[in-house]
Design goal:
Elements: H1 13-26, E1 35-36, H2 38-45, H3 49-61, E2 65-68, E3 71-74, H4 79-98, H5 106-124, H6 128-146, H7 149-176, H8 179-197, H9 200-220, H10 224-227
Helix pairs in contact: 1-3, 1-7, 2-3, 4-6, 4-7, 4-9, 5-6, 5-8, 6-7, 8-9
């Protein structure tokens, strides 16, 4: 699967190259230890080396590659890296959800349910990109609505990595166990209902359950190629 072109509207060439390489690395198409050549990538994308360098800098900052004199060496997402990504996501959502307790969340819940509706349509049409995007939008809406500037900065630093991991995981799930996507929809709907009720204990339980199940799903799909290296 290629990176969805609809997600790249308005993106610079460097950002496009970054997104495409990021997906290749996370999906294991560029395996750990592979040396990425600026010249080769520039040729593949029909561009100069400048946008490629821009992409390499971003991917290095995300810890997906290591810049060396000979070129960029792929590190990828190890199981430990993925665990840390989920740890930070869970900590963020635990925190932001507390800001919704004892508040009127009607507008937010309506928005979340609209996203879930779109996930259902995407599942019906086997639209991997749309399902992934709406799943991501659901979680991002919680972060944005909390109105916490520093948390938002942290989230923004990971958002492209999170989105790409979700895309890769959804692709694998649709191919091997699509029924799990219906379970994901149900869990999102349950979470939205708990948020409407302002039940903080239930929300915390659902967050922990969601990330436990998501960890297992990602380990069984996205990380399978890294376990073999």
């Amino acid at each position: 699967m290629k990176y969805p072109t609809t997600w790249l509207q308005g993106a610079s060439l460097g950002e496009r190259i970054t997104c495409m390489l990021r997906l290749q690395i996370i999906r294991g198409m560029q395996t750990p230890g592979t040396v990425l050549s600026e010249n080769q990538i520039a040729t593949d994308f029909g561009t100069s080396r400048s946008p490629v360098r821009e992409a390499m800098k971003v991917l290095s900052g995300e810890g997906l590659i290591r810049l060396e004199r000979m070129g960029a060496v792929v590190i990828g997402m190890t199981p430990a890296d993925m665990e840390e990504l989920f740890d930070v996501r869970m900590l963020i959502e635990h925190f932001v959800v507390q800001r919704y307790v004892h508040k009127d969340n009607t507008i937010l819940v309506t928005t979340l349910n609209q996203m879930i509706d779109k996930m259902e349509v995407a599942l019906k049409h086997r639209d991997i990109a749309e399902f992934s995007l709406q799943d991501f939008n659901f979680h991002e809406a919680l972060v944005l609505g909390a109105g916490h500037t520093r948390i938002l900065h942290t989230w923004n630093g990971m958002r492209q990595l999170i989105l790409t991991v979700m895309l890769a995981a959804t692709e694998q799930r649709f191919a091997s166990n699509i029924e799990e996507s219906q379970v994901t929809i149900h869990k999102h709907r349950t979470f939205a209902n708990a948020l409407k009720q302002g039940n903080d204990q239930e929300l915390s339980r659902l967050i922990e359950e969601h990330y436990r199940d998501t960890r297992n799903a990602v380990n069984d799909s996205v990380l399978s190629s890294y376990k073999k290296t």
